[in-house]
Write a structure and sequence with these properties.
Chain lengths: 234, 151
């Protein structure tokens, strides 16, 4: 596969263009707080950011691969994801917020190697949560992301026969601004923790903030996409 | 105990929100724009929308209408060109998704002969130009004009 840098730069730019447009603003805020709250370790936010990017890119690669292989038609998959994923996202975000707050202690039976409480780990954050969040947010297409991904990245992928590299760069592009803001938030929080009562306290407040943001945005998604009430035009 | 109270508060607020929204949306009828065009014009520039009307989408609709009605006024006044915004969530418009391979809100330029669709063209760059009004209008008007000249 011979692919020059230009299509990859284009895919990266389309990703950034998607991310800075107003329509994914709500999910970007949720992702920023989720990644930014990982301040327990020095590189926690960077690791979570990389995991979030991996989740996003994986979703785009999967769709691109399926479309290029002829498993789905572009209008079919695009309309389906735009119609149903945003409806699903509301309850998922509220649930995640409740899990982050640890309001419901999940005691699931152990599966296999004691690796059971996956859902709980998703809520608590870290790498699995960030990958899951990236994957789900990437699938929740809004008009701008659908237009740029299905109208620009997929045609490029078909032209250059690249169903991995181009969606990967697009995924990186969509995550870059979020990671930038999240790192700033984490840096600020670590800096603030020097002046107040340590990292644990700041982490606790960040966790609550993240949960409130998740529940708030989840309710916003439910009102907008389940009930069709336009609260704001983003 | 404190957690339990907080959880109960979230559940109750969600229930109240849903009930009030369900109540308010029950009496609301669906908002439809104009009915499907009587195909009399030779060319129709469509804007297809569905679901939530985002700010970029509303801007695209407004600027596309301006491109057709202002920049291509002579064709509109001659009755050769028409602008139409259609909601593809409406059952009677759903066929346009298949007809024009729509994957998001789109501007489609079409040519009809004897009431039958003969050609169409999607304008995918509207999303890349949605932040520059002049470039956007030049793009839509220019592409439409070229499409009409190449008949």
């Amino acid at each position: 596969m011979d692919i020059s840098a230009l299509p990859m730069i284009s895919a990266l730019w389309f990703g950034i263009l998607t991310s800075i447009s107003p329509c994914p603003l709500a999910t970007n805020i949720a992702a920023t707080t989720f990644i930014g709250k990982q301040i327990n370790t020095r590189y926690g936010s960077l690791v979570a950011g990389t995991a979030y990017t991996t989740g996003r890119s994986a979703a785009y690669i999967l769709i691109c691969f399926a479309v290029v292989a002829g498993l789905f038609s572009i209008p079919g998959v695009s309309m389906f994801l735009q119609q149903y994923m945003n409806k699903l996202l509301g309850p998922v975000l509220v649930m995640a917020g409740i899990l982050i707050l640890d309001l419901i202690p999940l005691r699931l039976p152990a599966i296999g190697n004691g690796n059971s409480n996956f859902i709980q780990r998703l809520g608590k954050g870290g790498i699995p949560g960030a990958v899951f969040l990236g994957f789900v947010f990437a699938l929740s297409f809004c008009p701008v992301s659908a237009a740029l991904f299905f109208g620009s990245v997929i045609p490029l992928a078909l032209k250059f026969k690249s169903s991995i590299w181009l969606p990967l760069w697009f995924g990186i592009g969509t995550a870059l601004p979020v990671i930038g803001f999240a790192l700033l938030m984490a840096f600020g929080a670590r800096f603030a923790s020097r002046f107040i009562n340590g990292l644990t306290l700041v982490e606790r407040y960040l966790r609550r903030l993240t949960a409130i943001v998740f529940i708030g945005i989840g309710i916003y998604f439910m009102i907008t996409y389940l009930f069709g009430v336009n609260l704001f035009t983003t | 105990m404190k957690k339990c109270r907080l959880l109960r508060l979230i559940v109750v607020s969600l229930a109240i929100t849903f009930l009030s929204l369900a109540w308010s949306s029950a009496g609301r009828c669906s908002q439809t724009d104009a009915p499907i065009a009587e195909i009399s014009a030779e060319y129709i520039v469509y804007y297809f929308f569905m679901g939530k009307r985002c700010s970029t989408c509303l801007r695209i609709e407004e600027w596309s209408a301006m491109a057709v009605k202002d920049d291509l006024r002579e064709h509109v006044e001659a009755g050769r060109l028409k602008w139409q915004a259609l909601d593809i969530d409406e059952p009677e418009n759903k066929h346009f998704v298949k007809d024009f391979q729509l994957y998001t809100k789109s501007v489609i330029v079409t040519e009809y002969k004897d009431g039958k669709l003969v050609r169409w063209m999607n304008l995918p760059d509207i999303w890349k130009l949605a932040h520059d009004q002049n470039q956007f209008i030049d793009y839509v008007a220019g592409k439409t004009r070229k499409f009409m000249e190449n008949n």
